[in-house]
DNA sequence: CCCCGATGTATCGGGGCGATACATCGCACG
DNA sequence: CGTGCGATGTATCGCCCCGATACATCGGGG
């Protein structure tokens, strides 16, 4: 999950950890909150051990302030195997749980995903949210009198959010089916379906 | 967090693990998805070690099917110290992160929380969601042209959800301030501000 | 009669998180 | 001019939670 996101970002350009975290936070910010260093660095270590990325002791750019001592910045770079791995993860759907942040991560890289996979992931997500929605409806209709007002309100709010997300997914799915893959308002700078290398 | 929720449920009545999980799933279902047994049982173990709850080898009720062998159901029960602990947790606000499920848990037990604490927690939550909302607005306004269409759409959807939650919280806060603590539509069976024992 | 789904208890490995520590850099304010 | 603070930057530790899995019992329907 984090592995997928990191590979995706490093696929675009090499980076050091701090920058990586910032990009992760904004890119995945919609479904996840902040990525902790306690997750980031161990994951980088794992990726490195698996051979998906390599570590380079930061080559100072033209404007680099001279880093006299050890512990300078470390730049991570994706390998060919890492790119393969990323392509593999691109078409694999996340697990079947509702609050899985994996959906948000996948969505964030939809520009690099082929349309069939996009559709599959969107529909999978819709199914899970619908299931959750039904569960909440059951609670609200069948057990309403056994719950206090605050719990009910919480349930109502959750149900509302589910319904809204289902509608959002419906729109995305319809849009996806009707040919034109990208979105409504703004132009993209990453043309889809163009795996480089 | 789980600790808090378990104490809250056992405060209402003793239960065994399976039932506990079901109740947790519906009660906290709005902000969290499902509680795993891999969390539940270790937490029960911890609570037991701390002395907040006790374990009773399931006394068979009148209709109990005779459980001949070992491994029958285990009923957990809150202790006096556990009730103290719960009262202590009731008035403590969760951590300062956005996607902290602690808010949902606290909210689920608002019927047992005094109004001042309710207000404090609601306002704390509002502040955090507002911060997140501002962050997303910045991304959308400042870095819009540097992101692909899907990432933008994800951001838009997240921003929308934040705005909606802020509005929801505003309503709850206003309602809370204007005297009448419970909610709008349905009657409650747990009168607030009545700590038993 | 037999199997299946619900009930029920429990463990294990893996991975994410908050807290924390530490070092450097640029700059604003006194 | 210097100093101290906030941003940049790397890294670890312990805690907790999750998904997968195993196992046992029970009621009922084919």
TrEMBL record, chains A, B:
Gene3D superfamilies reported for this sequence: Winged helix-like DNA-binding domain superfamily/Winged helix DNA-binding domain
Domain Transcription regulator PadR N-terminal, residue spans: 6-88
TM stretches of this protein: none
SUPFAM superfamilies with a match to the protein in the record: Winged helix' DNA-binding domain
Region described as Disordered: 176-197
UniProt protein name: PadR family transcriptional regulator
